[in-house]
Amino acid sequence: MYKVLKKIRVGVALFFLVSITAAFLYIVNSETSVFSTLLKLQFVPSLLGVFSGTAVVFILLLLLTLIFGRVYCSTICPLGVFQDVTTRVANLFKSKKQKRFTYDKPKKSRYIVLGIVALFLIIGITLPLAYLDPYSIWGRISSEIINNSEQLINNGISFLFPNSVYFRSFVHFAVGSFVFALFLLAAIVLFSAFRGRLYCNTICPVGSLLGLISRFAAFQPVINHEKCTRCHLCAIKCKSQCIDLKTQTVDTSRCVVCMNCVAACKNGSMTFSFTWRKSSKQNYNNPIEAQNKEINSPDRRRALIAMGLMGTALAVKAAKVGPLLSVKPKISGISPPGSISIVHLKQNCTACHACITACPNNIIKPATMEYGLDGVLLPVLNFDNHFCSYECNQCSIVCPSNAIMPITLEEKKLTQVGKVRFIPKRCIVFTDKTACGACEEHCPTKAITMVPYKNREGLYFPSVNRDYCIGCGGCEFICPAVPEKAMIVQGLDVHETAKKPLKEEQEELVIDSFGF
Amino acid sequence: MERRNFIKAALLGGIAGAVKLKGNDLFADDKMSVSASNDLVAVMGGEPAQMYQKAIEAMGGISKYIKKGDKVVIKPNIGWDKAPELAANTNPQLVSAIIKDCFAAGAKEVTVFDHTCDQWQACYKNSGIESAAKEAGAKVAFAHDQKYFKTVKLPKGVRLKEVMIHEAIVDCDAWINVPILKTHGGARMTISMKNFMGIVWDRRFFHANDLHQCIADCSTYEKMPVLNIVDAYRVMTQNGPKGKGIEDVQLAKALFISPDIVAVDTAAVKFFAQFKEMKLDEVTHIGLAEKLNIGTTDISKLKVERIRLG
């Protein structure tokens, strides 16, 4: 029976790993955004979106953990599953002895990391959580490494089949973001190749937080002390290294419920059983277990502190207190439509880069210093290679954490992410006294119109009404003025609503002549 | 007459090279049809495909322009992510009718493309042109990356001496220019000559180096379209070339066709001026092109046929 459970776990895990990775691939996103909906099941996005969006997923994930333990970590979490895959692959190159896992004591660091992450959350800085969130790490790896590799392969194929496969322009390459993703990938691969779920049980704030709950899970792996022969078949299979056969206990705060141990046990002494029926008395009847709890007491203290801090962070979020500390950006970046404000983005974005890969125009890039230090790697609009399509709200659809709130196309068309600043002295019409109008041509709301230029007959000059500007960057992108453009969109720290474009009704004319 | 001879020679030279026919046969053939047909045809009052049929008949039939085995390119305006009703892009029914006609004339392949302004896939899809073209059997080419463009020299250009043109045009035997008639903030009007900005890669250069002169210069390209077919079924009379909404569009139900790009644009501007004030002088690139001997604005000197349907 446990072998079947294990197979189900592997199946579900692979489904999530493949689907979530697919959500970061351009080739998939250009066809469907189905996979992006699965991102909404991720823990940290659901935690951050708990008050701005829906709490349903967050509560469901907590309930899931309370019933079955950390199954989230071995199925839904893409980074967790990826580590299992790496462990499996690494095993191909290992001797039988090297493959064996041994029990390891719980690491102090996990609750310290969780506590620090929570402390930062309380003062309004989400970045440490964003950088350590396993889903977002996998998002950045998928976006920077897998998606970029896929682009290279696609472009190779496009040379072989120029008529059916299109070349995907290399628009911008975020070196910093790529190197960071590569570093994380290397670290994770090394961790999991040699030590199984080491990341999950020493650093991962999600693992630590869910571990706090999984201690009390209804179903847990339980060792029958009478039947167990301490043969170690379970422990050598435990990639969380949490089965201690000296005391015949399983550290359920670290167990990711992979079912390897129960599937490996030959004499049925290891079971995945319902534990809530047992009275606590029974537990303490076992002297070894009682002793074990005492040994763990400093760990428990840290756990309680971390839990308290996380609770406070949630309370702060619930109270919608502004950030207590935020680095003021020197240059104001333009945040994607739907992100409400730079503060909202900073507080809710996990830098998973789902929006970056979903943007059909490739205009969202990982920020460097546009939002300040506490906004590095967050999505920022850049109009160097294209502009924000009037008929597109893709980023707001895919965002799993409501950092970019889901907005309708109608709302998006009035969302003012920035306002254009026109610098007439740089305009071609002014400098060269020749026609241009590229900005007006691209303006979807006609915030820019062309008006007769001074007394030069036949020459028209841009006129800007910023009330209608939504900051899409069409004008900035196309402006041919060099070295500096005459149209520059200035981001708004807090997005506003633009005036609805005027409907210029005209009389329907019936023409009966050719006119020549 | 010099102009017409030039066009004829260029055209026939290209065709002769492509189909490897003996020059004599072709010239003998062609003399008859040229003398019998019109320089410019204007049609009014029908549906896009129907007006095209009438127009091309009056021009002597598509076989005069497209030969058997030709690689043909049809270049509509697909610049914007807008539905056909909003008249920002060429009418897909018209594009479809021309493709089918080219195949009927024996074209080996027909390619449709535009270097769009809005996101290219959205433009191709929502203009209705991609599906119409594919349905009619044409290839829809990519034009969103510099990779698809080749540098060509424009020795007769005044400001624009060199330009990157889409490989489909550079490599084709004949191409047909199918713009839509619209207002334009910068160029005042966008018709046939302005539609060339969709065959080139770097449009910013045009804007930065005297837009009107560059548009005229671009029409000195040696491989000119064999026909320019102006779609004036729906006409955007304000807020062009992108437009804001359906209120920017007038249902004009007209079509203009000519191998002379200057003449056809002149005719289209005069037609447009009945909806909204527009002086030919204001669309400066038309006059500049005439100066470069690309064509004539003097329609009265041409053989023009005006057809009214319905």
Secondary structure topology:
The complex is a heterodimer of chains A (516) and B (310).
Chain A lengths: L1 H21 L3 H4 L4 H5 L4 H6 L7 H13 L2 H5 L2 H14 L17 H14 L4 H6 L1 H27 L14 H21 L2 H5 L2 H10 L4 E5 L19 E2 L4 E2 L9 H5 L5 E5 L5 H6 L1 H9 L1 H22 L23 H7 L5 H5 L5 E3 L12 E3 L12 H5 L10 H4 L2 E8 L5 H5 L5 H5 L5 E5 L7 E5 L9 H5 L8 E11 L19
Antiparallel strand pairs in A: 1-4, 2-3, 5-6, 7-10, 8-9
Helix pairs in contact in A: 1-7, 7-11, 8-13, 8-17, 10-11
Chain B lengths: L1 H18 L3 H14 L3 E5 L3 H11 L12 E6 L15 H13 L4 E4 L7 H7 L2 H7 L3 E2 L8 E5 L8 E5 H5 L2 E5 L1 E5 L3 E3 L12 H6 L2 H8 L8 E10 L12 E10 L2 H12 L11 H8 L12 E5 L2
Parallel strand pairs in B: 1-12, 2-3, 2-7, 3-4, 7-10, 8-10
Antiparallel strand pairs in B: 1-11, 5-6, 8-9, 10-11
Helix pairs in contact in B: 3-4, 4-6, 9-11
- Please, what is the oligomeric state? heterodimer
Structural class of chain B: alpha/beta
Number of domains of chain B: 1
Total helical segments of chain A: 24
* Total strands of chain B: 12
pLDDT < 50 runs, ≥5 residues of chain A: 279-285
What's the Cα radius of gyration of chain A? 28 Å
The mean pLDDT of chain B is 91
Q: Strand order of the main beta sheet of chain A, please?
A: 1-4
Query: Which whole number gives the mean pLDDT of chain A?
Result: 90
Would you summarize the structure shown here?
Chain A is mainly α and 516 residues long.
